[in-house]
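Following up on my earlier thread - several people asked me to post the actual chain instead of describing it. Fair enough. Here it is, all 187 residues.
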Amino acid sequence: MKQAKTHPPTFFMLTTAFGPVAVFWSLYGGAPKIGQILISNPKISAQEAVEKFFPDAVASSCEEIDSLVDQIGALLNGADIQFPLDAVRLDLCSPFQQQVLRADHAIPRGSVSTYRLIAEQTGNPRGARAVGTAQATNPFPIVIPCHRVIRSDGALGGYGGGTEMKRRLLEREGVVIKKRAGLLYGF
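Reply from S.P.:
Thanks for posting it. Predicted structure:
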């Protein structure tokens, strides 16, 4: 049996105030689509992650990806950008994760939701942890703004780029982060 020929992953590296961001993309259904976004975090930069985990990846772009990457950069600099869901390969996610990511995508700029509320929206009112897991593995951070989801007790919760990045993204969107009793909350 012949094995299908695989192509090395294609990515575009963007330099931002939050560190490097790697946007992996491919043609799907005749159009360029984002398959994964790696953001830098306190443990490893996106550039180091690409070199370590995707050593055969090829740096490349096209007009559509250039436009999306420019918008990602603008959002990270504080611009009000709403990305179209058809820019990403949601089909690579489980049905539950797709529900969670669609709910995240619907949270307006300057607003927050909670893991519990997203769980209720997906029909699983006791599934706040499952929502957190779906967001922790969000392959499209920034484009699908999972940073807009906080814990029910008002604490920020986790984020792939670290809690400092999450706090700064929310503040750039106008969410007021206050400290009370050792917890951070946004209202």
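The first strand starts at residue 10 and ends at 16. That should answer part of your original question.
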